[in-house]
Amino acid sequence: MRLGAWTAFVTRHRRPITLLAVMTTFAGVALLIDRPKGTVIGWFSLPLLVVGGAIFTWGVWPHGATSPESSQSVASHLLSRLTWHGRLVPLFPVFGVAIVLADLGYNLALSGTPALLTEDTIVLLAAATLLGYNFVPARFARERDFVLLFFLSLNAILVVPLLAARAYYANFESSVDVYSWFALAPETSAVLSVLGVANSVHAVSGSTAPGLTFTPQRFPVPVTVVITTACSGIYSFGIFASAFLAFVLTEYERPSRKMWLLVGLGLLTAYVANVLRMVAVVLVGYYTDTTQTDLQNMLIAHSYAGWLIFMGWIALFWSLVFRILPRYSTQDRDLALEVSTRRHKNICRICSTPLTPIVPAIGCSCGAHFHRACALTTGRCPACNTILAFSNLEVTRGI
Prior knowledge:
This protein is mainly α. The protein has helices at residues 3-12, 14-33, 45-60, 74-82, 92-109, 118-132, 141-169, 178-183, 185-194, 234-251, 257-286, 291-324, 330-343, 372-378, and strands at 199-203, 210-214, 223-226, 361-363, 369-371, 394-396.
């Protein structure tokens, strides 16, 4: 597909293209940070990240469409304040190196193992973002701001509370499963009870995580599931919350009430989906036929079904979000029109074929041009989404 045709296609289908970019990138980050154990799908993380980043770069946020001077999103204002109006941006590499050294020092001095665990991966990815921030060209300002906000939010949601809990309990050598105790195990138990599955939540000897015991329907042998932080789905929740927050802040100009309501709704429903994910794992064990297949089935559900359930919910939620949020911010519309006028003035914005003096063409007030016959078919300008009133349009003979 030619560049002009691709750009026109993206303009007409921006929402599904954005949804595809969000889903692909989310899946890649989720597999990188929270790899399903004992499966091969974790190897798809890098290809998914590359594909998702490419769709964002050339589809959702075309290069040349933004610059530091023209960007007026909520993210740009927020980062301006956090960086003391840009004065701290040149020091980002220093901060990145300091974070790497702090993480390695923490592992050697306080952690029970020097190995790089999931939290270390999250911290090091944020450090890498700071190290590479100033090397990203200005025309990709929105992309780099999105990545920076994403990893800062991810650390704020997943790493900072864990460090605070470890400091509070003076236990730096093992995971402190506060989230599982207070925000997952009791809620999972309540949902299972409503579904008719008798269960109990209790402490497990030798573990800081809660245990949930139930008796499968087909054989009277109690089964205990230990809900550790790594198995709770908190990482998927954190990835979704960070991506959703970073995207909304980067995409829109001002924090409207609708936008913040959607952010709150997104976080709440992500939490509910995480509880249902754990419920699904237990239900697989509850309806298992034999003791030999019980553990195996739950592991498969934990590695595949839980992850796929969460991904399906993410797709549903984002598709609803794109229907509720405005299609373009004011900035996006102005930039889209500028790019359209500059790059595609000789192409019909509806059928993506060249405009010629032979076939009558029509120009919208926004600067977009298209064949008169195409405009009669659609009745709406694909650039600014304005209903075409032909009495107010300029009739030309090509551009």
